[in-house]
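Open question from group meeting: does this chain pack into something compact, or does most of it stay loose? Before anyone orders reagents, we agreed to write out a predicted structure and look at it together. Recording both the input and the output here so the notebook holds the full record.
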Amino acid sequence: MATDGKGRRAEVLRELTDNILPFWHGRMRDPQGGFFGAADCNGIVDKGAPRASVVNARILWTFATATRVLGASYRATADWAFDYLRTRFLDGEHGGIHWLLDAEGHPVSDRKQIYAQAFAIYAFSEYARATGDRDSLKLAIDLFRLIEKHAADRERGGYIEALDRAWGPLSDMRLSDKDLNSPKSMNTHLHIMEAYTNLLRIWRDPALVARQAELIAVTLDRVVDGQTGHFKLFFDMDWRSLNDHISYGHDIEGSWLLVEAAEVLGNEALIARARAAAILMAERTLAEGRDADGSLHYEAHGDGRLIDADKHWWPQAEALVGFQNAWDMTGNPAFGDAVRDVWAFIRDHVADRAHGEWHAKLTPDGRPYTSAEDADACLAGPWKCPYHNSRACFEMLERLKG
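Structure tokens returned:
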């Protein structure tokens, strides 16, 4: 196992370029347009599976970033993803992004989930950043203005979860069947913040600067629990927390995204607050959320009892970056050891060496589930895409340069 930064960086680069990216531009690219919606644990593609806006936006972000960071050989796949997201998912009548398409590219769910609008901003911003495409920048700006017009809660702060196609009220605002039907959530706020961070890199509009400052502040004030060092997950309109569950993956993900958002914004007071919160969140995740094998647990009750002892792929990716970010800020060797251990777990257990990509879900002792054993076990699906893992690789490539 590589223990030095240079050696680990080389391993991360190989994982990204030899295992993750080829799976998507090779196996999952649909010659008729866009990307197939699912592939099982054996890499068998389901060409009839629906296509999720979030997945397609994340694919665009991934290959736009690959173009910017790794070179022009990834540009064709980024262009392919951009064309499909723009022509198929955009709502030409009401604006915004449809939630779900069928395999032929027709809307089957046209709700305006704000989470999806945010990921489209994230993706269009990155494509504009990588290529200089002005149309992509305009699409990102238009989506920002739609979110601010229809979803912002000007009275109590933050954003509501979802609206109907015409941006009217929606009774069921859940992001997924596993979520509460709450009007506000940590998850949506976290990824609006992430999207606005990326847009700020290429468009320093005063309105965007102001709204991002408010969003970072409301996240620190309302979503982060300053006593426990965990995110609160679901809220009513007045920011009353609706359960006490802990999501270790979101905690460690949010720790580094908060710092990134404040630093890109350039607000020194918010930078100081974000760093303090991030260190606390990383410390609590380190103390409470790690298993003996170095992996990160998924979710727990407020008293620490595990809700799900399985090993999910994306918290491992976020732990890699979050603990590295905490080490960068503190120099605490415990965080450096955590980076080493979670990378070893990813490399030895999560990465699929037979088919490419990463296993979505593993048993508590680190064995990948088969698709027959668990419907959520797959290599590609409605939530399984090259986002958390490729983003972790891109982040580590940058952070380990020195």
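Observations to bring back to the group:
The chain has one domain: 5-399.
The chain is about 50% helix and 5% strand.
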